[in-house]
Amino acid sequence: MSSPPPFIASSPITPSTTRRRKSAFTYKHLSQLSLSSTTCPLHIIAHIDLDAFYAQCEMVRLGVPTDQPLAVQQWQGLIAINYPARAFGLSRHVTVTEAQKLCPSLITQHVATWKEGDEKWAYHEDAFKNIHTHKVSLDPYRLESRKILATIKEFLPAPPVQRVEKASIDEVFLDLSAQVHGILLERYPELNGPAPYDDPTEPLPRPPTTALDWATDALVDLDDAETEDDDPDWDDIVMQIASEIVRDVRAKIYEKLKYTCSAGISRNKMLAKLGSGHKKPNQQTVIRNRAVQQFLSGFKFTKIRNLGGKLGDEVVAAFNTDTVKELLEVPVDQLKRQLGDDTGSWLYSIIRGEDHSEVNSRTQIKSMLSAKSFRPSINTFEQAVRWLRIFVADIYSRLVEEGVLENKRRPKTINLHHRQGAQTRSKQAPIPMGKAISEELLFDAAKNLLAQVVVDGRAWPCANLSLSVGGFEDGITGNKGIGGFLVRGEEAKAMNSTVNRETGGDNMVDTPPPGKRRKVEEGGITRFFGMRQESTGATDREEEGMESPYQTDAQEGVEQDAFEPPPSAQRGDMGKQKAVSEEEEEEEEEEKNEEDEHERYRDAAPTHALQQASIEQYFCARCNKSLPEYERSEHDDWHFAKDLLEEERQASTPVPPRPPSKPPAQHKGKGRGRPAGGTLGRAEKGQRKLAFG
Ligand code: CTP
Ligand code: CA
Ligand code: CA
C-alpha cells in the first residue's frame, strides 16, 4: 500500500483517556470480518462507478485533452456527456443541435454501429443519418469495461480475499472486508488476540486515539448525535483502510488506462452505491456508520436501488412522500400493512441503511440481448432477417468474449421478441446442446423463431424485434466432450417444445394452450429463407427516432438487482407478483420502457382500418374466403411459410402429409391474430446447417 499511514500521530483528538468507553466491537465481529460476513457490523464495501463512462471511452480512444468538452451521440441524441461539457449546462436531454449552440467547442462523437451486411461494427462517419440501416454497438465500451475490471482484479489480492462484482458496464462492487481484516491485524498487533477468557463476545481493545487521515476523501457529515471529537472505533478505522485501498485502485485504473472514476465506501452495497454518486467526478465518499442516518435522510428514497421504479412509485403513492426523512416516521407495522410483510420490513430496514446483500463475484451475465426499434415499422421477412443477422453477429461476438468457444459458458435458450402494434410475442427455443455454438446455428434458430411468429399471423408491420440468449451455464470442459452435456429437467422440457408467449397491452399470458400450438420443424425455415432473395429495399424513412442503448441494446451488464429486496419487493406488485425470472424482469422492463416511445412513434397500423366500415377485400382461393386487401401480402407470406414448413416436415418424417392448417383469418379486436388450428411444436434435436449469407 503506497498510501500514508492511517494516523497522524501528532494530532490526538482526545485529551484524556479516562472517558473512554469500550469498543463496540468484539473478537467475534473481527473474525466475521475475515469471512466477509454480510451481517458483520464491520463489513466494508466499496462501489466504483466510472465518470461519464462512454464519453471517457471516446476521449481515451480519440486521445483528446482531458478538458475538451465531448459528448457521445446516438442518432440525434446525446447519451453521455463528459464533465467539461456538463459545465456548459449540457445533459442527456438536449439535442445535438442545442448542445452545439450551448457549447461551440463540443466534440460530438457518434457511437459505433453495425452496418447492414458488415461483419463487424465500426465508427461510421455518417452513422447518425442511418438509423434505419445501422444498429448501435456498445462493444467498444464493453471492451474498455473489461479492461478496467481486469485492472481492478489484478491489483487486489487473489480470491477468496478478493471479491469483485460487476454491477453494470461501468460499475463494480468490492467487498473489502477480508483484505481490510488482514491489514488491521498487521497494523494493530493488539488485535491478534486471543480474546480475554477465550470469550469471543469480549469487546476488542479500543483503537489508538488519534485523528484518522482521510486524505482527499469526501466525508459525509456525522449524524446529529455524533461529533468529530468522539474517538474513532474500529468501524471508522476499517472505513479508513478501505478508503486507502479504493484510492489506490482508482489511481491504478488511471495510471494504466487513463480513466477516472468515483467511489463510495460504506458498510453495505446500498450505501456504497449512493456514496459513489455523491461527489463526482474523480472523488470518493466515505459514509461512516455514524453518518448513515444523516446521509440517508437527505435523499429521496426513489434514489435507492430497487425503489427507483414501480415499487418506489407505489410507496410514494401509499405514503404521500418521496423523502426518506418522512418515510422514517412511518412505523414498521404500517409499512407492512400497506405493502405486505416482506416489502414493508425490507423498506423499513433499507431506509435505515440496513442491507445485507452479498457482493457476488460469481455474478455472471444472465442474458444477452440485441434489439432494434423500427420507425417506421418493417414489413417483410427479408427486412427482419437482415436485422436478425446483425443481432446474431452482435450476440455471437459477445458470446465469444464470454468464452463460448472454449465452452466455458454457454446459453441454453434463444428468444425472439416481436412487437406488432400493442402486441408483443415471444418465441423461445432451446439451443441444441450437442453442438458447438456457431453464428450459423444461432442464425438458423433465430430465423426459425421468426418463422413461427409469421406462421402465427399478423407479424407485420413490426415495430420492434429483439433477440436474446439466456440460461447461461458453465460449460463442461476437460475430459467430457461437448457431446457430453447432460440434458436435465427444465432443459429437457425445453428440448421438446418451443415456448410461446404473448402480450397484448399490459397482460402477459401464456399462450396458446397446447392444442393451439403449431408444429414447426427446426431447419425448415432455413430453406424458407434460403429460397427467397434478400431485397435491398429499405422502408420509407419518414420518422426520426431516438434510441437509447438501455432500451434497445445490450442486456449484458444491464444493472442487476444488487440489493436483493424481498421477492415481493422486486416487482413492486405489492404481493400480487408473478413468478418471473430476473431475466424476464429485465426484458419486461425494456418493453415497458419502449412502450412510451412506441406511443409516440406508433405507425398508423392496419388495426385501425379494421374499424372502418368499408375495407377493400380480396379472395384467397386456398382458404376459400375473403380477406382484407391490406392483409394480402402477409397472408401470402403465411401460405408460403406454411407450405415450406410443411414440406420440410414431410421430408423429415415418414408420416403421411397432412393438409396445412388454416392461415390467419380475420382478426377480431386488438392483438388477436392467431390462426386457428396447429399443434404443439416439437423441435427436433440438431438443426440442419445450411449455408446462408
Ligand atoms: N447510459 C445510457 N443511457 C442511460 C443511462 C446511461 O446510455 N439512460 C450510458 C451512458 O452513456 C454512460 C453509461 O451508460 O456513459 C454509464 O451510465 P451512468 O453511470 O449512469 O452515467 P455516466 O455517463 O457514466 O455519468 P456519471 O459520471 O454521472 O456516472
Ligand atoms: Ca458512471
Ligand atoms: Ca453507472
TrEMBL record:
Enzyme Commission number(s): 2.7.7.7
Keywords linked to the UniProt accession: DNA-directed DNA polymerase, Nucleotidyltransferase, Transferase
Top-tier EC class: transferase
Name of this chain's protein: DNA-directed DNA polymerase eta rad30
